[in-house]
Each structure stands twice: as C-alpha cells, then as structure tokens.
Amino acid sequence: MAEGTIQWHEDTSDRIVYWGGIAHTVNGNPRTVSPSSPPMTHRNAGSYLREHFGAGYVSIGLTFHHGMAPYQVLPPPAEFADAVLGSTGLDAYLLDLRTDGPPSARTRLDMPTKTRLIGPHYDPADNAAYHLSGGSLADWFDAILHTQEVTPVRSLSYATSYQ
Fold it and tell me: What is the SS3 assignment for 29?
C-alpha cells in the first residue's frame, strides 16, 4: 500500500490523504496486530510512509469508546488507551500529540499501550483480543480524533442542481 501511495505522489506531486484503519496508517515500526494466532508483528504502510515523507506524513488516529459498527462494540478494557481517552466526559475531541503537555499526560502518551483494533470481524465475547500494541500513542500518531460513540454507516441524501 505504501509503495503505491509513494509512486502516486512521485508521478503526480499531488497531496494525498491516505485513509485506512489504524493497523495500516499508524507509524508502526513494528506494531503487533491481534487477534491472530500467533499475533502478527511487523512494519505497516504508515511506517514506510513516515520513513519516506518524514514529517510530511501526519498520522491521525481515529479512536472511539463504544457503539455500533454495524455490530455492537463494547467499551474497551480498562488497560486500553481508548478507555482513558473515553474517560474525559467529552463527546468528541482532537488531541495534538506533537505539543507539550503536563508531564503526567506526556508520560501516559509516551508509554507502550494497547488500542482498539476493530475490523470486519469482531467478537464482543473476546473484546480484549482486538487490539494494536507494540508502541505508544505518541509513536503511532501525530494526533488523535476521539469520539465516544460510533454508529453504523448510513447513506447521505443530498440534492444536486445543475445550472
């Protein structure tokens, strides 16, 4: 995925938004993806994009606490970063991880963690198995956009007029 994105940029010089799940977009060098047996640890596209583009590749993590996607997703286990991000009392917020903050917050952002990894397959009975690990929030992301509750995708209706 990274090779195609880099080639597109070299061919066109266009600015690119690389949109995907966090397992693909984090600056993970390496990162571990679960559930898999055994868990898979390797580099991902985001790490190759960061290596190639440097600070020109900005990784934004989309995290959430609970909701429907289209199946019910339970709140994360307490040891997951998503649980801490969900404890703010805010419905949604953007957290810039490139800025300084209180030392206690900086310590939390720099320590190894787990974050939610929900894909096309998810078993609520094994909620803790679905995670990304092997790094810290500050290693993986430049910013986090967190929302408390997700809802299933739905069609947008709009009117188009031609003049």
Answer: coil
